[in-house]
Amino acid sequence: MAKSEFEALLNEYADAVIERAQSNLRIKRRVRGKVxxxxxxxxxxxxxxxxxxxxxxxxxxxxxxKGDAGQYADVIEWGRRPGATPPKASYIKSWIEEKIKIGGFxxxxxxxQFIKTTESAIKSAAYAIAKSIGxxxxxxxxxxxxxxxDTWPEYQxxxxxxxxxxxxxxxxxxxx
Length: 176
Fold this sequence. Notes:
The chain is an alpha+beta fold. About 55% of the residues lie in helices and about 15% in strands. It has two domains: about 1-80 and about 140-170, no CATH class; about 80-135, no CATH class. Strands 1-2 form a two-stranded antiparallel ribbon. It has a two-stranded antiparallel ribbon with strand order 3-4. A two-stranded antiparallel ribbon has the order 5-6.
């Protein structure tokens, strides 16, 4: 069965939200006085996806993350409250290694001087960062929420019209 105009438009809307969410992740922002980029490997960026379905006779779009990026997607979206359990240092260590590999990340000692990147220095930095995240939290960037809110006004009227038209067509087909 061919897709209805509404289903095609709903998929177009969802694709636009994904594209905007990816753009939101790429944007460099100022957090606590520092300009930061939330993309290291691009794993989360490339894992954004959606699923359209009918739930309780209403069309819905579920925006989600596929694969192992789902482990930290909510933390990037909503942040982590201060005083929460810190993340595992092994996850932070992997993130540090990825940032070092792509460049622009250098380790420093307590006095702020650059230090040689060794395995023990990376482990020590990962532990310190994890401890700091547990203590101070992380500010979320609402990449999905902002994408949905920014894209909805562009598609709202079109989706409503297409939905009404689709319902009318289904009613006409059922009368025959």
